[in-house]
Input
Amino acid sequence: VAVSQERPSEWRLFRLWNFSREPKAFEIRPPLDAHVSLTATAFRADFRRETGARAQKGV
Output
């Protein structure tokens, strides 16, 4: 959110859904809080460590 406020001309929020059947999309430009209600949440995603043959092949 801070980056969208600092550089609004370089920032967009896109949502894509129903991609395999009938793709739909929309775009929101800053200021985000003028368009959506913002709720702070935390997400974390880590890559799993690959071991063995898969890691050696780069898969």
Notes: The longest strand covers residues 13-17.
